[in-house]
C-alpha cells in the first residue's frame, strides 16, 4: 500500500537495482542458509539434478535441461519463479519492464527525460515475470524477438521509428525468466535469432537501429537425442548456454511412490465420489511403471513419462468410483480388480519396439502381473496366509471382479484367522471398513494365485479363485 509510485520516491526509499541473475543468486543463497525448500514439488532430484541447477544459478548461467519426456523438466523450470523477488519496480506502462533507474526503450528514456523524478513507477509481481514458450516449427522470429507493427505505422509513424516495433516474447519478459520447451524443435533461423540474446544480451529487429540490452535468465529444455550436432540444434547456440543439466526418472521406488502420491488425483474434492487408493496398490502402480521403463520391449529412446504412473493411479481410482456408483457402495476403495483397467487407458503413452507390434497389451499385462507379484512378496512374503489358503481346501471358490461390491466379496470369503495381521502388513488399520478389508483380501488372493498357491479363472466380467 505504501510502495513508491514515482522515481523520486523510489530513490528516497533506498531501493537498490539488481539484475535478474543477482536476484536469483541472493534469494537462493538465503534459502540455502535457512535450510528451506528451494524447489517445492520436485521429487527425486535432491542429490543429482538440483545441486547442478543451484551451481548454475549461483554462477549466473543460462541453463538447458536435457532429459526424456515426463522427467519433470518443465515443473523444475517453473519453480525458479519462486526465487525471484516478490515484486520489482518498473516504469509504468513499459512494454519491456524497464527499471526506473536505467530505462532502455525509446519511450521510457523520453518519459524519464520529460518527467524526471515524477516518472510513474509500477510494481510487477514475480509471477508476471515468467514467460514460457513451447518450441514448434511454426514459431517465428516475430513471436520471440519482435516485428514491425503495421497498426503503429498506419497511425502515421515512419517505418524506421523504433516505436513501431511490436516486441516479442523475449523482450516482453525483460527482467524475468524466459523458458523455451523442446528447444531443438525451433527452426534453425529462429535459433540463430537467440544467439545475440544469450551472448550480447540484446535484440535486433528487422535491421532497425535499435539495441535493447536485456536482463533475463533463459532456461530451455530438450531431448538429449535432439540436442546434438547430429540432431536439430545449431552448435553456436549450444555454446551459448552456460550449464547443461541432465534430468532422470525417479531412481528409487520411494521416489516413484512419493511422486504418484503427490501428483495423482485419487479424489475430486467430493467425499461422495472420492476414492481411497491403498498403499499396496500405489506400490503396484509404481513398480509397474518401473518395469515398463526397464522393459526391452519398450523403445527406451522415447522414455516412459512420470505421467504414465500418475495416469495409471488415477485410472485405478476412477474404476473404484465407477464400481461404487453401480453397486451402491457408500465409499469407493480401489482393489486388485481395478488394475486391468490400466492397460487400455495408458497403452498409448508407451512406444514399443517394432518387433513387439501387435503384442503391446500382452506385454503390459505381463508387466502388471509381475509388479503385483513383486509387491506381494515385499508386503506379504513373510505373513502366514495358510488360513486363507485352507479356505479353499474343500473345493469351494471365491468370486470377485470389477463390479463385485466389497461386502459381497467379504461375505463370500467368510471369516479368516489372521485377517487383522494380513491387513496390518498392508498398512490397513481400519479393519471395520469393508472396502479396505476387501482390498487387502483380494490382494492376498491375487498374490497367492501369482505364486501358484491358488487357481484363478475369468468368467465374463467375474474372477473366480479356487484351490489348485
Explain what this protein looks like in three dimensions:
The protein is of the alpha/beta class and 468 residues long. The protein has two domains: 7-246, Rossmann fold (3-Layer(aba) Sandwich); 253-466, no CATH class. It is built from 20 helices and 14 strands. The strands form five sheets. The chain has a five-stranded parallel beta sheet, with helices on one face. Strand 13 and strand 14 form a beta hairpin. Helix 12 (253-263) crosses helix 13 (279-294). It is elongated and about 95 Å long. The termini are far apart.
Structural class: alpha/beta
Segments where pLDDT lies below 50 for 5+ residues? 267-273
Name of the CATH superfamily of the largest domain? P-loop containing nucleotide triphosphate hydrolases
The CATH topology annotation of the largest domain reads as Rossmann fold
Sheet having the most strands: 5 strands, parallel
Q: What value does the Rg take, in angstroms?
A: 29 Å
> Could you tell me how far the N terminus lies from the C terminus, measured between alpha carbons in angstroms?
76 Å
Strand portion: 5-15%
Number of strands: 14
Task: Summarize model confidence as the mean pLDDT.
Answer: 89
Helix content class? 40-55%
Q: Quickly name the level 1 CATH class of the largest domain.
A: Alpha Beta
> Going across the major beta sheet, what is the strand order?
4-7-8-1-9
Question: Which architecture of the largest domain would the CATH scheme give at its second level?
Answer: 3-Layer(aba) Sandwich
What is the total domain count?
2
| Tally of DSSP helical segments | 20
Described by the principal axes of the CA atoms, the overall outline is: elongated
